[in-house]
Design a protein that fits this description.
Shape: flat
Helix content: 40-55%
Protein name: DUF2007 domain-containing protein
InterPro entries: DUF2007, N-reg_PII-like_a/b
CATH architecture: 2-Layer Sandwich
Radius of gyration: 14 Å
Number of domains: 1
Strand order of the largest sheet: 1-3-2
Number of helices: 4
Domain DUF2007: 7-71
Pfam families: DUF2007 (PF09413)
Distance between the termini: 50 Å
Amino acid sequence: MEEEKFKMLRRFQYSSEAIIYQGKLESQGIEVFMRDQNLIDSTMYSNLFGGIKMFVKTEDFERANDILNDVNLFSVDDDEQL
């Protein structure tokens, strides 16, 4: 059995933000694994522990990165206004 390899895709300060991006990736068929989410949520020392780490399979890394890069950080209306 071949061992799966994973690559860290992003770090997040808040679990709510990480969960939104996780949902986006999983809706596109990319399996997501989070690390340190419970630690961050229970201690609120996100910067101390380096945030919540999002991992994907190495073979999905490029596609996942492209998907997250396409997500706008701010909502805009039909006229591209904030």
